[in-house]
Every structure is written in C-alpha cells, then in structure tokens.
Amino acid sequence: MRETTAARYAGTRVQRVEDGRLLTGHGTFVDDVRRPGMLHACFVRSPFAHARVTHVDISAALDLPGVHAVFLAADLNPDIREQWYTSMGKDIPDTPRPALASDEVRFVGDPVALVIAESRYIAEEVFAAAAHVADETIYQQGYAAVPIETRGLVVEWSAGELTIWAATQAPHEVRAFCARLLGLPEQRVRVIMRDTGGGFGQKVIPLREDMCVMLAARKVPAAIKWIEDRRENLMSAGQARHEHGRARMAFAADGEILAAHIDHVQDVGSYPSPWPVGTSAAVGMIFPGPYRIPQATWSTVSLFSNTSGRTAYRGPWQFESMAREVLLDIAARQMGLDPVALRRRNLLGLADMPYVNPCGMPYDHMSLRETFDLALEMLDYEAFRREQHEARAAGRYLGGGTCSYVEPTSTGMGYYATEGATIRIEPSGAVNVYVAGGSTGNSIETTVVQLTADALGVDLDQVATIQGGTAVTPFGAGTAGSRSGSRSRCCATSSARTSAR
Amino acid sequence: MDEVQIRLRVNGLERRGRVEPRLTLADFLREHCHLTGTHLGCEHGVCGACTVLLDGAAVRACLVLAVQAEGREVTTIEGLGTPENLSPVQVAFQENHGLQCGFCTPGFVVSVTALLRDNPDPTDEEIRAGLSGNICRCTGYQGIFKAVRAAAGNTP
Known about the structure:
Chain A contains 14 helices and 18 strands. Chain A has helices at about 20-25, 60-65, 75, 120-125, 170-180, 210-215, 230-235, 280-285, 320-335, 340-345, 370-380, 380-395, 445-455, 485-500; strands at about 40-45, 50, 65-70, 105, 110-115, 130-140, 150-160, 160-165, 190, 225, 245-250, 255-270, 295-305, 355, 360-365, 420-425, 430-435, 465. In chain A, strands 3-5-1-10-7-8-9 form a seven-stranded mixed β-sheet. In chain A, strands 6-11-12-13 form a four-stranded mixed β-sheet. Chain A has a three-stranded mixed β-sheet with strand order 16-17-18. The radius of gyration of chain A is 26 Å and the shape is globular. Chain B has two domains: about 5-80, Ubiquitin-like (UB roll) (Roll), CATH 3.10.20.30; about 90-150, [2Fe-2S]-binding domain (DNA polymerase, domain 1, Orthogonal Bundle), CATH 1.10.150.120. Chain B has five helices and five strands; from the N terminus they run ββαβββαααα. In chain B, a hairpin with a 2-residue loop joins β3 and β4. Chain B: InterPro entries: 2Fe-2S-bd, 2Fe-2S-bd_dom_sf, 2Fe-2S_ferredoxin-like_sf, 2Fe-2S_ferredoxin-type, 2Fe2S_fd_BS, Beta-grasp_dom_sf, Diverse_Oxidoreductases.
C-alpha cells in the first residue's frame, strides 16, 4: 500500500465543481423536474389556530375544470403503515403526526385537504386561502428557516415502483421514511436529488405535506408535483428557537466559575418533528460550553402550542451558547470584570485535554483558549478598547462582544454515524466518487472531489462525483449537524486508500 | 379562462405561446419555454430570484404577466453565459465565493449584469443599492459584493 499522498487540494481554495451549472441556470432543482402528464398538488390549509373540522365540502372544487382529485384525511391517513424517523428510531415517545388534519386543526396553516389539478393555477384557485451568582432568565424569539427554495417534491408511481425527486438534505432518509410510510420494500422506492436551494434543517426529514404527496401518488395516474409557495413555507414549514431559560452561574471572587445551571423551556408547536423532545437535552449537556466548570445541572421542558411544529434549525441546541454568553456578560458587569478577562480566566486549553464536562460530554483535541487568544489578537482587542474609550469620550458608542461555543458534529451513533463512499476508477483512468450527498449549498461535491484527488494522488479534474441518487450511492445520513464534510472525508479517504491498494 | 396568443423573443429566439392572461412571465419561461434557470423564491417580488431582463431592464418575472411581454425581448440567465463560457459577472461570482446553493444566483447574476451595464464603475454604496433587491440565504453578501467589485474591474 502506498503512503498517504500529500494533500494538494484539501485546505486550499479551488473553484467549486458545482458552479458552472448553478451560475448559468442549468442546475436541477426539484421544480425543474417535469414528468409526462404531471399533475400539481396544492394544500388547503386551516386559517384558524385551533378549530374543529365538522364538514368539508369538496364538490365545488371538483366541479372546476382541470381539478383531478381532492383528498381529505379519510382518503390518505388510513394508508399510513409506519411513520417514524431513522434518526430517532420507532420506539421513542412521539407526537401523533397525521398526514392531513382530520377532526381538529391545531395551527394556522395546518393542511386539511390536498387538491390535485392540471396546473398550480387551477389548484390554487380552489381556495381563494458562590461569591457571586449571576442569575438571569433569557428569552429568544422564534426563527424560521426560510431557504430561498421552498419545500417541494415530485412523486411518480409507475410499474410498482415509486420515484421521488426531492428538495432534501438527506435523500436516503426520504427513501427509508417513504418505504415505511407506504409499507413498500425499500428497493421499490428511489429518491433522486441534484440541487437543493438551501435547507438549514428544514429539509432534513420529510414533513406532513411530503407524507400527503407520497400517500396520494398511488391514487392518481401520473406524477404529482408539489412546490410550496412562500406563504405556506412561512406558515407551516416549521419553526425553531422559541425558547427561554433561567441560567445561573456561581463564581469565586476572582471570577473562577464554580457551577452552572439552566432550566430550559422550549415551544415545540403542534407537530414537532422528528419528536417533541428534539435536541433540548443537548442544550443542557452543552451549557458548560468551552469553560472549565466543575459542577453543572440542567432541566428542560417542551411545551406544545397552536403554532407550526418545531423542526431542526442550524444547531437546534444553539440556545445554550446564547444563554451562557449573555449570562457571562451580565456576570462580568456585576463583578466589575472585563468580559474577555472573565472568559480567559475560565476557558479550557490544549493542556486541559482530554476533559469531560460536568454533564458528561467528553472533549479532546480542542484549542479553545488558544483559538480565543488568536481571535483577540486578530481583532487587536486592546486597540479596540482604546478606540471605544475615545469614541465614548466623543459621545459615540461602540460595542464589542465575544461568543464562544463547543458543539458536537459527526455524531458516532446510529443513523448519523452512517456514511459511505464508493470510488470507481473507469478504464480511461477517470475517477468517479459516489456518496449519499444532500448538498444544500455546502459545496460537498467540491469537498469530496478534493479529498478523493488528494487520497489517490490524482489531479482534481480527473475526479467527478455522483451524489443524491439512492439507487446508485451508498447509504448515508446526508447534510445535517455540520456532518457531511467530516463524514465524507472519512469515507472518501478510506475508500481511496482501498482503491489505491 | 380565455387564452391569448403571444409572441416575444427570449434569448434571441422567437417564442410563441397561447397563455392565460394570469400566467406570469416567470411561469411562461419555466413551463412553456423550459428555461428553468429563472427561479421562484417568493412569487411576490421580494426575493429577486426570478430577475430577468425585459428590453434590457431588470424586472421580476413573477410580477410581470406573460402577456405584458408581447412583442418584447427577454433575456434570462440562460442567455448570459454557458458553463464553458461564463460571462465576466459569472466568473467574478465563481472566483469570489458569490454563491453556495445557487438558487438565488441567477437573479443576482442578471441584476448585476444590468447594474454594471448601466453603471460600469459603481461606488460601494451604488453596489449595495444595486444588490438590495435580491436576497441570498446561504453565502452572505460580502462574497457577492466582492464579486460585483471584481466584475466592475473586468467589464470592458
């Protein structure tokens, strides 16, 4: 076996392999997919936050020329075989999550009916619709993911096989989820994605509308396309970060942190996905963050509300950083310490590794204090403080702040520990590397090409990558929790070593 | 709904179609002409992803009806460059990290192309104003701003 080749491409600036098509309008996003005779799906949604559904009259809708079908809960929901997400498994205590709302709607935007029509225009016409303790309760407003491309999928049932073109971060999860939902063998569901216009967590798992389109696909004679509009996306595609917490820290007189505690409360809306607890435990586990804190405890509560369900959003446990760092600023002010000095006093450094935080999270290979010092040096913190002082004397207010955090990625458990790469060296010497994909703009195509070129010692332009098709790529959990780059690195590199051998 | 016959030029080619008066220009380009590079992010004139040139002026194709383009000249992202032969604006976006997922990108490229044609040497403030009608969710605007600055240097 040859030794690992020197990295020529990883860590250097290379032109992205995705850019040619994306810059010239030749990408393939889900709404760019057309199928013969394709029909369009559109949801009728609740205008009420909480109401009983006593009767739905679909006759007027069916009378419109071009309307093919109108499905209600009774048409779709009984077909559901199993409904759970791979990341959580089927045995967790989950919220009931009907495809369409049946007798009760629980938030503005709750889908009640699915209209199938020849074009979106017709479909939408249907509903014209210690020494010192810092103690502070910290509130955070709700967020929405808002990718510029809304959600959407095309589902085609043909000759006993289901093909799905999806806007997704995880094509293999779409396949697994759909196979369970419809009770189909996994080999008879194929998911294809090429370009996804941003995800931010919203496209990491199929949600209720996706379920409806999957369920309806076997009941109509052609492919169905559903492309969400922006209003629907803002109403019903999930929310995140509406949470608060009472955060407390105890300090010695010199600013050494002695203990930390957080009581965390989060709004999970009406249909939290993948489950109501979500990542709230991570808020507690990571609350000590990058600091040396001997003792810590935490609690968390998930509350249902008449709003759209809570979904993943860019580090869904992020409240821990916000709460901790705001609390440290408050503590520094109360103790009359410089907020940067207070943090430097407590930051873990390379010499402290390995380390286990008081909630049980193991840390290793982390240069937290060193990174913080480097950032301050780049900023020239002392010069900034002088500038700030002079500005204030002149009546101008300049602010400066820091936020440091530690978070896990590439979780080594279950579904999220899974990723593979297949490398094919073609007769011409051209190299193809196959990975699960799920790129939503995170350049994973370019990354995998760089890594493979380095591992095989070949030129960048000899390597191409095929991603996003469940029929041809190895199983993998896709883009979530900052994992795709690091996970793909392991796979591409180890596959390349095997190939080189 | 009664359909109307329209005739227009798209990227230099004549296109004819029978369309309902309510059909947007964006959907005409995507559904009738199969030019799917014009993207729809909000369908109410906020995000700028669907920007095209109508007789040279940058417009939002979601706010223009196809019938309003009768007899006019439309240029879409597909008319501005190819992967093998990128336009100076497209090259600048690639070289300055001006895109990630690429969904908003066609709208930015079209807007910037019009901006630099009308004002080849913009100030920083003029670049920011020129970009203010387009929303990007991944990249952040610093890379896009740098791309415009670089393209302004390259525009003949």
